[in-house]
Amino acid sequence: MTDGAPAARGGRAFNSRRRALILAGSAAAMVALAGGAWLFHERRAASRDGAAILSLVLPDADGREQAFSQWRGKVLVVNFWATWCVPCREEMPQFIATQAREAANGVQFVGIAVDQVDKVRQFRRQIGLNYPALIGGFGAIDLSRELGNDLAALPFTIVLDRAGRVAYTHLGPVKASALDALLRNLTPAA
Amino acid sequence: MATLDISRGCGRKRRRLDARTAFVAALGVAILETAVAAGLPNSSAKLLPPEQAFRFSARAIDASTLEARFDVADGYYLYRDKLRFSIEPVAARNVELPPGMRKHDEFFGDVETYRGTVVVRLPLHEPSQGRTLTVHADSQGCADAGVCYPPNPQQLKLVVPTSPGKPGAYVEASPKGWFK
Q1: Pure H helices in A43-157
Q2: What's this model's pTM, rounded to 2 decimal places?
Q3: Nearest CA to A158 among A174, A149, A170?
């Protein structure tokens, strides 16, 4: 750059524009960093394989034993929930809608209730559940902890890809947009 | 008002303002993104373990009465009908829980919840001065951030003072094996 008159005339404007650029740039860097941290946090469990889940056998609300191996090869959304957990109940209509929409794409939701069977049956009827409600009891909390639910709280959701790898774990209600995006990634159109 | 005046200013001021606005906007986005990165309000990183969200303590009021206390952290609440106390080896009798805040639950009907500090008197079956008592509490609660904790058993030991008319000090439940 030369120090010619035209440059000097436009100097201030140029500086403020450059400052804005630098600031915007550093802000963008912060955003990228934060995003990276978030991805790291969300994918901490991603490398784990879902063998612990796929080897499970739990009774459903009708007392029939259900082996998770029957869902091998599907995109499996496993949701730990309970009727005594309001945020759990609140996100279930969204799961029901997604199950109905994505079933043809090989998506299978399975609920594991940290609850009593009569309560689960009653709620299943009330909400019109269209995916299996398995009864995990309070032992299911320990299982979820092994799968990354450090606080042992509900709702806790795990998504396995078709190869049985843990693609996502999340404590708290799942954002519909995040789940939709994830399922789109895991069920590419054939 | 001030904003209006500045926006009417000369071109140079305006450009500066643009730069500043861009910076503030970018910073805002960055802060927002950081909050998202922290996963608020759903991140486990920001959530308390139950024994910290629902701190349990108790003291002896006199030889025949204990007082149990829950300090519920901001943004958390306990369910009244899930709160239970028991004492060993001298049992409690006629425990009356204070009324909570009532709210309607679609599945369970009207439920009552506690926020802040909950104090419960626990009358003992017999005067117990000088004795060591174990107080058990079962509680269950949730965070406004959108998670619920399973029933959480806690316990503590306290000694009932021998001198009459002087309440003992609060004893806090120590964190149990669950999380450490």
Answers
A1: 51-54, 86-102, 117-127, 139-146
A2: 0.72
A3: A170
